[in-house]
Amino acid sequence: MSDNITINQVDLTAPTPQNTPLTHAPIAAGLSRPTVPDITEDNEGEEEEEDSPNAVQQAMLGLVQGKLSSLVGKSSGYIESLPAEVKKSVEALKGVQVKQVELQNQYKRECLELEKKYNELQKPLYERRHAIITGAAQPTPEEVEAGEKESAKDDSDYSPLSKEVVDSPAAPIPEFWLTALRNHVGLSEIITDRDAGALKHLIDIHLSYLPSTDSKLGFKLSFVFSPNEYFENDVLEKTYLYQEEIGYSGDFMYDRAIGTEIKWKEAKDLTKEFELKKQRNKNTNRTRVVRKARPTESFFNFFSPPEPPNEDAADEMDEVDLEELEEKLEVDYQIGEDIKEKIIPRAIDFFTGKALEYEDLDDDDDEFEDMDEDDDDDDRFEDEDSDSDADLPARRRGPPKGRGAAANNNVNPEECKQQ
Q1: What is the pTM of this model?
Q2: Tens digit of pLDDT for each residue in 286-308?
Q3: What percent helix, strand, coil does the chain show, rounded to 5?
Q4: Containing domain of residue 197, as a range?
Q5: 3-state SS of 263-332?
Q6: What CATH number should be reported for the domain holding residue 333?
């Protein structure tokens, strides 16, 4: 009779500083060299690639990542192994953090009240800006002088206005808001040539905050239009509502957005394309021409925001459809945030294009971050060797966070945002 052979069981407990020695980490035990299929003479070129040290390292990395993916979110057992007296201290720290979070939430709500206060203080300046844009008022010599100093500071080659121009009446600025919106990187991609005809009539954009007495906090963007051939509305509004609870990161979380129903004039709906089709009656053989509408890309879809699904509906949705919806929500929230935080307070910078200098800096930062990320080969091996999706932790399906989502990495997240 053969002797019994003891087989050592590999402990797949997630490593921590407490349970991982300096050598022989448990995830390395029991890993064998990945097998490579036989290569025929016809595939000599592929043989060199498979046997290269880089290919072997990538395969090993894929195996390790596959094992680790099944351990994500699982306890290492360290906390459970602590003495009861230590566990008592751990629970006490959680209680202390509860008080800390309450103060942080209070801080964020007070910051929101400060934003409301300073938005009201800026209203006379916004009204003055609107009057100059539309030609309802003439700029003062002091305003022109201050603007020229700013231009000279930004551009060493700036040529001051001639005395003749300074002494003559100023003219309205045509298509001011259309130009400002088109100079925003994100909005320029959704404003079509057809939209431009209607946006030429955009004469102002207002920001207002919902009263603190409302059931939900949030803000409203109001787009003011002059009479035009496209729709009956004088004002199109978009309201963003915050969730009641502050997010884990300490920021307000968007709940949903509500847009104005646009009253389009006959055959002027920019969110639809119309095509003429001939139809023949089978009985009488007569023909008729019908107009059929189909959805199309348009800036004015901004006022018909996607509706975030509830938890039950999200669970029933197809994964691809859910990801597409989340992406649409993310884009919608980001556009609203940028209009609120960038375009309204810095409208003249977007009109002149000065704001694009700062947008380019943000893009450069993203490019440098991408260079530091793992290459595509790592992702390929992870997908091939990782366990099934059922073993992976559930993906967060909450709506994207609102305030602070577009903040620069250099900004203190606890800093109160003031306009």
Answers
A1: 0.67
A2: 888 777 778 999 999 999 998 88
A3: 45, 10, 40
A4: 174-360
A5: CECCCCCCCEEEEEEEEECCCCCCEEEEEEEEECCCHHHHHCCCCCCCHHHHHHCCHHHHHHHHHHHHHH
A6: 3.30.1120.90
